[in-house]
Design a protein that fits this description.
Blueprint: H1 3-9, E1 18-19, H2 27-31, H3 33-47, H4 50-53, H5 63-77, E2 86-89, H6 92-103, E3 109-113, H7 121-125, E4 129-133, E5 135-136, E6 139-140, H8 142-151, E7 168-171, H9 185-198, E8 201-205, E9 244-249, E10 261-264, H10 267-275, H11 277-282, H12 287-298, H13 301-327, E11 333-334, E12 342-346, H14 353-364, E13 366-367, E14 369-370, E15 384-388, H15 394-411
Parallel strand pairs: 1-13, 3-4, 3-7, 7-8, 8-9
Antiparallel strand pairs: 2-10, 5-6, 9-10, 11-12, 12-15, 14-15
Helix pairs in contact: 3-12, 5-12, 8-9, 13-15, 14-15
The structure holds pyridoxal-5'-phosphate.
Length: 412
């Protein structure tokens, strides 16, 4: 299938429109994966025992990858990651679906921040009750979550050995999709207490946590601490054990085509996963590919590629931001994220973003994601826009941002 056709299959536009809703890496980046994979494959085949490599793997995932990945993440996150907490998945979305299937059942509630990049149909298809939690400009409002967990406590079912939590909270605390913001330390600490008080699990999407551009020049500082790192034994009630699972993926830092990722979970959750019938029968995801990825990391190829991605994305973020600041009217609010791939704009309330999108596509050859796509509350965030910097180079982004600003200016 030609690349253009594949992209239409993924729901993207034809080549004339610069579509700033696309959040996957561009083709130039992906060409860069080839060398790393070639080297990794050769190294893996030369160093690993084929009798192990081509066998079914351990339930938790390839041990070599768990170890090299733990070292890599410890360096990138700037916080300790233990290989014993890692579980290899077929990507972060597959990890999420696995947790849903193993630990929860139809009718259980999932609490989701009112601005979320997650496709909520993953949850509704499984029969979960989706409860939307209000957010403000700083992210999820902890007191609102506390109230909603109380309101929905009638949904509590008896905890079973297999399903110890009656519901879960899905969120993103670092360079969040769609706003690019990170949750403050104070809110992260408060959240852990709330999860433990209500005995719910939290599934945190940390797939953008390696993409930090904090500090204006490379080497960049690591991202804020992931929520998993706040969940220490000294926080809150210990009755339900630790309560945070972190989802990670090679899709955002290497290649989405490989469909490989990980989850980082406390032992009390990992035990349930490893002993589930699903993992016993269908587990040990991507064992051979894990061997190759372990070599890619060991050879320094992942670090090399991620450094390139960060420098490139940082340049793109600056280019988009400079163009927007220069050309947007002052009525439009925006703040520069410290990492990730998203920029969030808040336009005056009276402006209808869906109409703007039509004009932008037809007259200015530029597309974006309307804010309402990320909310489950009707008519909310109708005046907001998400832009992605992942898919086009600085020059194209800068010119597209200027055209978008002109279109906005015309309608204010
Ligand atoms: C924020 C975010 N979460 C999840 C994903 C999906 O990851 P995966 O391909 O590992 O399912 C992506 C992919 O780009 C992403 O940007």
């Amino acid at each position: 299938m030609a690349a253009g056709t594949l992209f239409q299959d993924l729901g993207c536009y034809g080549s004339d429109v610069v579509d700033l809703s696309i959040s996957s890496q561009d083709f130039v980046f992906l060409h860069g994966c080839k060398d790393g994979m070639e080297l990794g494959t050769m190294h893996c085949l030369a160093t690993q025992d084929p009798g192990n490599l081509f066998q079914y793997g351990p339930r938790q995932g390839n041990f070599e990858l768990c170890q090299t990945l733990a070292n890599f993440l410890t360096e990138e996150y700037g916080h300790q990651v233990s290989s014993e907490h890692l579980f290899i998945t077929g990507g972060s979305s597959q990890g999420l679906v696995l947790l849903c299937n193993v630990l929860f059942q139809s009718g259980d509630p999932v609490f989701v921040a009112d601005l979320t990049g997650c496709s909520l149909d993953i949850f509704s298809d499984l029969g979960f009750k989706v409860v939307s939690v209000p957010s403000d400009e700083n992210g999820l409002i902890v007191e609102e979550l506390d109230k909603l967990l109380k309101v929905h406590s009638y949904r509590k079912r008896p905890a079973t050995e297999k399903r110890p939590f009656w519901g879960f909270v899905y969120l993103m605390t670092i360079f969040k999709n769609p706003t690019g913001h990170s949750l403050s330390e104070e809110r992260c600490n408060a959240l852990i207490n709330i999860f433990k008080k209500h005995k719910v699990l939290c599934v945190c999407d940390d797939t953008l946590a390696c993409l930090s551009y904090a500090k204006s020049n490379p080497p960049f500082k690591p991202a804020p601490k992931r929520l998993f790192g706040y969940d220490t034994s000294s926080t809150g009630s210990e009755e339900c054990g630790n309560v945070v699972v972190s989802l990670g993926s090679f899709s955002t830092i290497f290649s989405p085509g490989l469909r490989i990722g990980w989850l980082e979970a406390p032992q009390n959750v990992l035990g349930h996963l490893k002993n589930s019938s699903f993992v016993r029968h269908v587990g040990s995801s991507q064992h051979y590919l894990s061997g190759v990825m372990s070599s890619v990391i060991e050879l320094g190829e992942l670090t090399k590629r991620l450094s390139f991605l960060k420098i490139t994305y940082h340049g793109r973020l600056n280019a988009v931001f400079d163009a927007l600041v220069q050309h947007l009217p002052k009525e439009v609010k925006l703040s520069k994220p410290q990492g990730g791939v998203f920029v969030w704009l808040t336009l005056p309330e009276k402006l209808n973003v869906n109409e703007l999108l039509k004009v932008c596509r037809e007259k200015y050859n530029v597309g974006f994601s309307p804010g309402s796509e990320f909310s489950s509350t009707p008519n909310k965030f109708n005046n907001c826009i998400r832009l992605s910097i992942a898919h086009y180079n600085e020059k194209i982004l800068s010119s597209a941002a200027e055209r978008l600003a002109t279109a906005i200016m015309e309608r204010i």
